Amino acid sequence: MTEQMTPPADPGPADPGNPTDLAPAALVPPPLPPMPPQPPVVHTPHVPGPRPPRRVLRAVARWTAAVVVFAGLGSGVAYGISSMERSDVPGLATRDDGRWDYPRLSLPALPSGSPRPFTQGNTAEIHHADLRELLLPAPAGATPDKELAGGWVSTELYVSEYAEDQDQRAGLRLALRDYAVRHIAARGWTMPDGTSSRIYLLRFQSGGFAQAFKDMEIESGADAGAPLVGAPTTEIDADWSEFARDAVEGTTTEVFAEPAPYDGTQVRQAYVVAGDTLALIVHEKKGGAPAVPFRQTVILQNQLLG
Questions:
Q1: Total-model pTM
Q2: Cα(172)–Cα(163) distance, rounded to whole angstroms?
Q3: What are phi and psi of 100, to 5 degrees?
Q4: Is 166 helix (H, G, I), strand (E, B) or coil?
Q5: Which residues sit opposite 111 in a β-bridge?
Q6: How far is CA 74 from CA 70, 77, 129, 237, 241, in A?
Q7: Cα–Cα distances in Å, from 134 out to 124, 185, 301, 306?
Q8: Taking a C-beta distance cutoff of 8 angstroms, is the pair 184, 200 a contact?
Q9: Residues 6+ positions from 152 with CB-CB distance below 8 Å
Q10: Is 183 buried (19+), middle (13-18) or exposed (0-12) by CB count in 10 A?
């Protein structure tokens, strides 16, 4: 019996996704090209350049030292200025302009539920604070006036500020009664340079009464109106407009000065109407009352009344 050979089974087309189905030659990577030969290393001998002249080296050294020194000085000066008071720095010191050294000011406390004079609902513009606490305190170095010590004063003492004209003083006494002035508080002092300062605060029934008394009885306008003792003539302080911006809104301020030539002592005066209160502020000094501290006093008293 002849043995028959069974032909091998057809494996079918090769699967390109199966590496075992590829020809063995496809699995062998192509040979890499040979590495190029390394270039020979050439050692170049160091040839030193020409040395800089000694003069140049010395100049560079000097400039380097100068830069270091000035940098140190600059930082030291900057630190010194930052740690000094402005008045201690030459060229930056604030020149003394004659202002007085007043204590730090604050408004007095009000009774519970009481409005300030220029707030909504207070139509009469009443100051509910104690009038004596609205007086400007004396500045540093002042000698207090024992008669005007910051308390209540009489109508007669206030009227005595005006010229010794019997009709004028009598008219002011009557007007104060007719306009129903409620209280008068006053403070006075004298500064080391001889400037005498006095402040009177007059409280009326309302802002309307205070304004009417000033307009109708004092009659200030082009001048101060009713003359004070020692100041028969006055004129408006033309420079006051520069300071009026510091006044409290709702108040009015009129500032006057006795013009030269005055009889030995010059008088400066101002009226401030702030709601129900009228303030009379007086500075006088032999040889001339300085303008700067007077205007300062007027502004601060105005702000306390605001």
A1: 0.69
A2: 11
A3: -90, 160
A4: helix
A5: none
A6: 6, 5, 55, 48, 44
A7: 18, 9, 8, 10
A8: yes
A9: 132, 183, 184, 185
A10: middle
For residues 211 and 180, give the distance between their C-alpha atoms in angstroms, rounded to a whole number.
13
Q: CA-to-CA distance for 290 and 187, rounded, in angstroms?
A: 19
Instruction: Tokens 């029934």: give the residue.
Output: 205
Residue type, 56: V
- The parts of the chain modelled with pLDDT lower than 50 are 1-28, 41-49, 52, 56-57, 59-61, 65-95
Span 89-108, pLDDT tens digits: 333 334 478 999 999 999 88
Tokens of 178: 């007719």
Q: Is 54 helix (H, G, I), strand (E, B) or coil?
A: helix
Q: How do the domains of the chain map onto residue ranges?
A: 138-305
- C-alpha 124/C-alpha 209 separation (Å) is 10
Looking at CATH, the fold of the domain delimited by 138-305 is given as: Protein Transport Mog1p; Chain A (3.40.1000)
Give the separation between CA 192 and CA 141, rounded to whole angstroms.
Answer: 7
**C-alpha to C-alpha distance for 201 and 136, rounded to whole angstroms:** 10
Quick one: tokens of 142? Answer: 């002042």
